[in-house]
Fold these 2 entries.
Entry 1:
Amino acid sequence: MAAIDRVRVMVLGDSGVGKTSFVHLAANNEPVRAPGWTIGCSVEVKLHEYKEGTPGQVTYFIELWDVGGSEIIVTRDMSSTTLVTVLSSFMI
Ligand SMILES: Nc1nc2c(ncn2[C@@H]2O[C@H](COP(=O)(O)OP(=O)(O)OP(=O)(O)O)[C@@H](O)[C@H]2O)c(=O)[nH]1
Ligand SMILES: [Mg+2]
């Protein structure tokens, strides 16, 4: 079986601009009802038929990396306590 070409797309932007909404719609062909903040990053995947129905049709395995735009990072310390740390100067 031929290997499928892979594409990784990083979706970046300020919090609330619609990154999760876009990624969910692109991957699932349906809108997300009530997206919450994305903490850290989430990844959705889909198979995409480029130039579908033409002689140049190519299947791509696409990873959509949805990177949270808020300045909140969830960390886990050595005592297994989950901490939410607001880093006002954090930049991606
Ligand atoms: N009017 C309108 N609202 C949208 C659109 N896309 C997303 N929203 C709304 O904007 C809000 C934030 O959307 P998200 O997709 O969670 O935004 P995000 O960029 O992932 O935010 P973070 O995860 O915090 O980085 C939600 O209430 C969505 O319903 C759009 O195209 N139009
Ligand atoms: Mg999000």
Entry 2:
Amino acid sequence: MTERLYLADDAVTAFEATVERVLSDPDRIVLDRTHFYPTGGGQPHDAGTIRVVGDGGTARWRVVDVEMRDTVYHEIEPVNAAADPDDGAVDADEPPALPEPGTEVACEIDADRRAAHSRYHTAQHLLSALLLDEFDARTTGNQLYHDRARLDAEYDRFADADLDRIEARLNELVADGRAVSSYTMDRETAEATLDTDRTRIDLLPDSIEELRIVEIAGADDANEPYDRTACAGTHVSNTADIGEVVVTGRETKGPDEERVRFALAEHVDAD
Ligand SMILES: [Zn+2]
């Protein structure tokens, strides 16, 4: 199976790899190793480009989807020559042959898109933790995008004053500049030692035996982390990197279930 490098280092956005398998309809490639994040855990896939190493850069593809099945599949489309005629990309009418297995490729991830996902994902961990701590509201789902996010939690109804308090607390935690770190742990140990309301291990498929744990540091004088969650997504390394967060609204998701919408301040229209 493809070595999933983004689990060990979620800051890398350029890397080289070898093509292992090529599939068509749609065109997809499997690499021996990848930093491309596949859609999962409420986080959208990465985008970027792949080019063949050592042939003058004539063949280049855009990565338009990344999917995790038995391994990681990168769906690719030839880069249109018209968009950038001087970079040696081929004519769109005659797309390059797909890279053969064994081909060395240089990969570049859209860093802005990745950074936005990492910021939203880390904000979601803070929000889940504070809703549990301060409202006894357990997170039941989440979805983030590059410019907004939402989170569902078991709760009767958040009043406007609650939303104000949630937003203020979120921004305190951001401003605290708390370290975010990750490590792996086997499932048995995790189930025996971690708070399962927080880690949500029960929601993971039984096939997953090794978990990636993501921790957000507690206050200066605390030994316990503020949050500790099993998560395979990408995150920033310090909560300060999230930037200002705005709670943009709420709605009823179902009986005793609330949906909270939030966005980074730079993605909220000033009005
Ligand atoms: Zn996460």
